[in-house]
Structure formats: structure tokens, C-alpha cells
Description:
The chain is of the alpha/beta class. Helix content is 20%, strand content 31%. It folds into two domains: 219 residues, FAD/NAD(P)-binding domain; 87 residues, Alpha-Beta Plaits (2-Layer Sandwich), CATH 3.30.70. Strand 9 and strand 10 form a beta hairpin. The radius of gyration is 22 Å and the shape is globular.
Amino acid sequence: MATGEVSVRCRIAGGGPAGMMLGLLLARAGVAVLVLEKHADFLRDFRGDTIHPSTLEIMHELGLLGEFLEQPHQEVRTLGAQIGDDFVRVADFSHLPTHCRFIALMPQWDFLSFIAGQAGRYPGFQLRMEADVTSLIEEGGRVTGVQAETAEGGLTVRADLVVGADGRHSTVRANAGLETPDLGAPMDVLWMRLSRRPTDPEQTLGRIDAGKIFVMLNRGDYWQCAFVIPKGGFERVHQAGLASFREEIVCASAMPPTPCPRSAASASISQFRMPSPRPTSWRRLFCEAGSPTRIFTPFSAAGNSPPGRCRRYRSSCRTGSSAASSRAKRNCRRRCLCACSRNIRCCSDCRPG
């Protein structure tokens, strides 16, 4: 795609799970859609590696489940927690009324690459990498497009609907003047990888003890781990040094120290600040999709769950409402992502509480 000015029916800022899934669904419905992603690729670690059963059910409904499960992944059928000296099973997915009764663990770059490949089969889908949205275009009190910077120069995109799905530090949200509530989450999370040994347990679990929370996700040959620290406490961890940090990890994880330390204990450590997840106001012909907390966190267990609920298209984003039958209420959530091709019409009485 050349620089300059282009026009599409829907323009999405952000090629994360919400943006890419929305692009796929709109393209399937025949809507011309352009996704702008500021990075050159999808290679970002510790980002929404959990694919929930509800998302897998959507894959089934789209006819993509078989091909999707051919991608490398792990399956988590139960979740447990070690609380002090007691082990508690906190989740058993075998009772779910879905085709996949498990959580799939898959690197987000594989998930996004799969969605991009499926969306690329439709002529109305376009994905532009290294395209950073810098501002919104407003005309007559309406959002009518965006300005973006690309490797080739400036790009102006005119669109009937602009969707902001560019994460917790959203440029689009800031330009739209939308505020987010501060939920006061009193914690930050350090994500890391630890090598996994044959003698380690299979269980994906969390360990909770006095003043400590440590989450371990079994990724086959390594553990994807989350270490919860007090809000703003990363500097204290840094000042205490790596040796002290390793001791804390050994204590929190209940893994016995060995003469040969586990590999990657000092590498691939990423700080994750707990964000405020939802905007409080909406503007005409602009909406936000996706949650900035897309990965398991002790404060808000989330992941790659179905994007776009009816509540996303509320207030002035809705041009009307209509009475709905019980069947229509059940199906409305599936249809609402394609509603922008018409009038952003959603049933006001079918939104989840």
C-alpha cells in the first residue's frame, strides 16, 4: 500500500488479538477493513498467551478450529493453587459445554499470525505493519479517519468507523480524549521464563503465601512465570540485586535450590504494570475494542477471550436500538462486530451486566 490518502469502511488501530479478530470478522462479512500495526512483526513475549475455551468455541463456529489446533500449543484442563500448605483445585474445564474443554497456551505471535493468514484470504482485508497512528481526523464533530506514520512516510486513512485497539497505552484513546477509571490495583507483575525439568510437576498453578503470589504456566520445556510485587516495587527489586531476586523466586515457587541454577532466571524478565481496563466515555463513529489485560493476572484473570461485546457499542456509538427475541439476544454478540457495515445497531437489552 502506498502512502498518501486511502478510504476504507473500517480502520482499526492495533494488530493485537482484538484488532486482528475484529478485522477477520469484518472481512468475512464483506466489510473493507484496514488494520494498522505500529510494530514490524508480532514478536512480543508475555502477551495474552492463553486462548480461552470461549475463544476456541468461536474458532469452531468460524470453521477454523481444526486448523487452529494444528498450531503448536499446550492444553490446560485444570488449574490449581497452593495456598500455604494446602493444594486447592480452582478450575476444572471438563464440564464446559464447549468443543474444547481446556485453555490453549500459544505464543501470541503464533495466534496473531494465524488470524492474519485467515483474514488475508478475504479481498476486503488489509494489514499494514510499521504504521503508527498519530492522530484522529475530526470533521463536523465526527471522527472520520486517522493520520499515521509509516516507513515510507505519512498516511491519511478516511473511514466510516475508527476502532482503537492499540493497547493500554492507546494513542487513539488519548487523542479521542477518553478517560479510564483507576481501579487502584495494588500490584505490579514481573513476567519471566524458567527452564522446566523432567522432575517438575505437570500442574499449571499459582502459589499463594503470606505476602507472595507466584503463578506458573506449564509451557512444555519451560515455565512461564508471574511474580507479583507491590505497586511501584520494581525499583526495590532492581536495587536488591539478582541474587536476592532469585532467592525470592525459589521461596515463592517452592522449587528447591540446586547446584545448577535454572536457565533463563535472569533473562526474559518483563515488568507488567496493572492497567485500568475500560474507558468511561464514547464518541460518535469511534469505539474501542479489546482489554488491555489480555493475559492471566492475579488481579484480573483474562486472556485471548472473545473480542467485542455489545456493551462496546453503547452510548453515541449506537444509532438505534430494537426489541429482540430470546434467540436474537443470544446471537447479537456474534453479530455486533459486523454491525458497523450498517448502522452500529445493537440491542440495548442484550448487553451483559
